[in-house]
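Recall that a protein's primary structure is simply its ordered list of amino acids. Everything else, from secondary elements to tertiary packing, is in principle encoded there. The following example makes that idea concrete.
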Amino acid sequence: MVSNIKVLSSSAGDVIISGYLLKSRRTELFRKLFWNLDCVKHSSEFNIRDWKKRYCILYKVRRENKTEIFFDYFKDESFSKFKGRVDLEHCECIVENVNIGGQPCAFSLTTLFNGHKRIYYFIAADNKIMSDWVHQLARVAELVDFSAMNTERHFA
């Protein structure tokens, strides 16, 4: 995976963080696999073929009296094909170092999608990139770190 990542200062309309991540496309299976805080299930059912490389961008847009934060993902960095958006306004939980079928550098976000809980799973190229994404996402979603004394970090 390409470790193309950028962290920029955030002002009106600026990118907070962007770069390539692997994103799981097996969302229906994951809805059934909740574990601990309804955030994640340790599973060997995850397979690398179920992941797609996506160019992800976390950015904010200022409008007259409101600032909105968006987490979008695209097929590539040309932004030619929009693939989706993670609803951070209803983000309940972010888990860093989640164990997904032995894949390293993974994290998950639990949010609401059309009134139902949805878990998004991502894999970064390395631990630093994963930590950068988790830190920025937790900051903009205004989540608090509820880390236990283990390798996983839970933000809720």
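The longest helix spans residues 127-140. The radius of gyration is 15 Å.
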